[in-house]
Design a protein that fits this description.
about 425 residues, single chain, mainly alpha
């Protein structure tokens, strides 16, 4: 007699369906998140009553920041939910919130029609999306890591960053296609609603797909064993070392990632002096190859362990961050700039490709989703989310090199954590095969 899924490892078909469902949903979530930033220029005038474009953009940017600040709250709420009600339930709720947020943006009338209700509805939509994206990381990282199987855990969990980057690239591609097909007036009038309708429709498909996913064996075993309930108090009192470890190992990695991906486009224009078009091309091309590197590095971690990759990122990041940025600051050759940016992203791959599985392997099943999500979200908000602001602030003060030192120091702090911690591949707390 075939054992129920709660007491047996998933089949290869179930694993593959799980990886597709988890990864596809992650892509859609990040597409919806980045679509807001990509189309702000077009929809801001509809929500804010001002003839000053800067004021309109500031209003839209402020609401974007509110969504970002909701991520730790989403990580806490959705992490607890996924631990108590199942990874599948957490993933389904996460994509449902993102779907609702995107569709609300797409259909909300402008300020001339409904007045102050327009920006208030935009705030509500971003609150839902912030909760969703905050919870998605922990739920998907936990689900992918638990469903992947011991031998391929690094490889399959690396697809979380593949789809994170792909979501950003898809949002940019949708913008480019609409700019080619529609006039400026059409985009400003109604075309800006299309990407949010696309995101909402894709989220509906992923919602249906995720409802058909199998639950993980780890969750089923933890529930059957009547483990302690997941919660903030349980996390910080029973697992303080692991919680602090996740925050510190994330700090250097998330700053490096934001420096070489999100901030780099502005750095190439503002400091290197390259054109916006060339900088965008460098950013897009390097991110594409960076995306392809993730499963390669994840597969390598399954062979040699997680710790060598993280230490490799830490050492290379400490040694080469300052030289890479200092050289980029004075180069005017797009090819050289692209190679330098790519070198930085190759270094960061040692963190991005395996950070999800490393965090998942640190915690027992009953609190794993919260343990992965909350300390990561806090570190990401404190360090990653402020990286661009810190860089621009130092530049404004005339000491831009201080940012290179800041990134190097934070990577060095994370390196100390990598050196001291055990290799989670060999000491994983994901017990099932």
């Amino acid at each position: 007699m075939t054992a129920p899924l709660a007491h047996r490892p998933p089949t290869q078909r179930e694993r593959l369906k799980a990886i597709i469902g988890g990864s596809a949903g992650n892509l859609v979530e990040w597409y919806d998140w980045y679509a807001y930033a990509a189309f702000t220029l077009y929809f801001a005038p509809h929500f804010f009553p001002s003839n000053d474009r800067t004021a309109q953009l500031l209003g839209a940017a402020g609401i974007f920041a509110v969504g970002f600040l909701m991520r730790p709250i989403g990580a806490w709420m959705m992490g607890v939910y996924a631990d108590r009600h199942g990874r599948k339930s957490g993933l389904t709720l996460s994509v449902a919130l993102m779907c609702a947020g995107s569709l609300l943006i797409a259909v909300t009338p402008g300020y001339p029609v409904i007045g102050v209700a327009a920006p208030l509805l935009l705030v509500l939509a971003r609150l839902m999306q912030g909760l969703s994206i905050g919870g998605e990381y922990g739920a998907s990282a936990t689900y992918l890591s638990e469903m992947a199987g011991r031998q391929r855990r690094g490889f399959f969990s690396s697809f979380q960053y593949v789809t994170l980057i792909a979501g950003q690239l898809v949002a940019i591609c949708v913008l480019l296609v609409l700019q080619a097909l529609l006039s400026e007036a059409q985009l400003e009038s109604w075309g800006w609603r299309i990407p949010f309708l696309i995101g909402g429709a894709l989220a509906v498909v992923v919602f249906w797909l995720r409802r058909g996913l199998a639950e993980t064996q780890s969750y089923a075993v933890a529930r059957a064993a009547e483990a302690p309930k997941s919660g903030f108090v349980e996390l910080v009192t029973r697992h303080p070392r692991e919680t602090l470890t996740v925050m510190l190992l994330t700090a250097g990695g998330t700053i490096a990632f934001y420096a070489y991906s999100i901030y780099m486009q502005k750095f190439l224009v503002n400091t290197s002096g390259l054109s916006r078009e060339v900088s965008s091309q460098i950013n897009g091309i390097t991110l594409f190859f960076f995306m392809l590197l993730q499963p390669v590095a994840g597969m390598l971690s399954d062979r040699i362990g997680r710790k060598p990759l993280m230490i490799g990122f830490g050492i290379a990041g400490v040694l080469f961050t300052y030289p890479i940025f200092a050289t980029l600051a004075v180069t005017r050759d797009p090819l050289v700039a692209g190679m330098l940016v790519m070198a930085g992203l190759v270094i960061v791959t040692g963190y991005t490709s395996i950070n999800a599985v490393v965090k998942a392997e640190l915690f027992p099943a009953h609190i794993r989703a919260l343990g992965v999500a909350l300390p990561y979200a806090l570190a990401n908000t404190i360090f990653g989310g402020t990286a661009e602001f810190v860089a621009l602030y130092f530049k404004q003060l005339g000491i831009e090199q201080a940012f290179y030192i800041y990134v190097t120091v934070m990577i060095a702090i994370s390196l100390l954590v990598y050196i001291r911690m055990r290799d989670t591949q060999k000491h994983s707390r994901i017990l099932e095969d």
